[in-house]
Amino acid sequence: MEPATLGEAIALQPQWLMIWLAVLAGTNLAAVLFIIGRTKDTAGQGRWFIRPEAIAILAAFFAAGSLMEYLYQHYGYVRLLGLAHLVFWVPVYAWIALKRRYLHPMRSTLFGKYLLLYFVVSGASLIIDAVDVVRYFAGF
């Protein structure tokens, strides 16, 4: 009998996979720490602002999670679950990559360093997901 929820199915997976999923979730959820930023001027003053990148990362994370739960309920624990990441994460990933390309170097701020981590971790996940989805449709 298959577990009732995706979370229950994930809990039955090998430890290495649960660690990877924790790293993946932690990296995406860390965006909450960067929603509000502050600019600094020469006098040490600045203004507060909202970072749309952080909001987009969080929105894509939760939307993908919802779609994954839906897919799990209809298809079970199969490689097709990676489709949720591809649908919601790829547009956000590409938008941030294009946007950051024209701004200051990413390593110069804490948010920039976070985005580098996000690109590496989420990028690895997207590659894995793309392979999984192709394998699902190919019947592997």
Give descriptors for this structure.
single chain, 140 residues, mainly alpha, two-stranded antiparallel ribbon, 5 helices, elongated
Describe this structure in words.
Helix content is 66%, strand content 4%. It has helices spanning 6-11, 15-29, 52-75, 83-101, 110-138, and strands at residues 36-38, 48-50. α2 crosses α5 (110-138), α3 packs antiparallel against α4 (83-101) and α4 (83-101) runs antiparallel to α5. It has 140 residues and is mostly helical. The chain has a two-stranded antiparallel ribbon. It is elongated and about 65 Å long. The chain is built from five helices and two strands, in the order ααββααα.
Mean pLDDT value:
93
Strand content: under 5%
Largest sheet: 2 strands, antiparallel
Tally of DSSP β-strands? 2
The number of helical elements comes to 5
Widest β-sheet, arrangement of strands = 1-2
Radius of gyration: 17 Å
> What is the structural class?
mainly alpha
Looking at how many chains there are and whether they match, the oligomeric state comes to single chain
**Gap between N and C termini, in Å?**
22 Å
Globally, the shape reads elongated
Uncertain runs: none
Helix content: 55-70%
**What order do the SSEs take from the amino end to the carboxyl end, as H and E?**
HHEEHHH
Per-chain topology:
Blueprint: H1 6-11, H2 15-29, E1 36-38, E2 48-50, H3 52-75, H4 83-101, H5 110-138
Antiparallel strand pairs: 1-2
Helix pairs in contact: 2-5, 3-4, 4-5
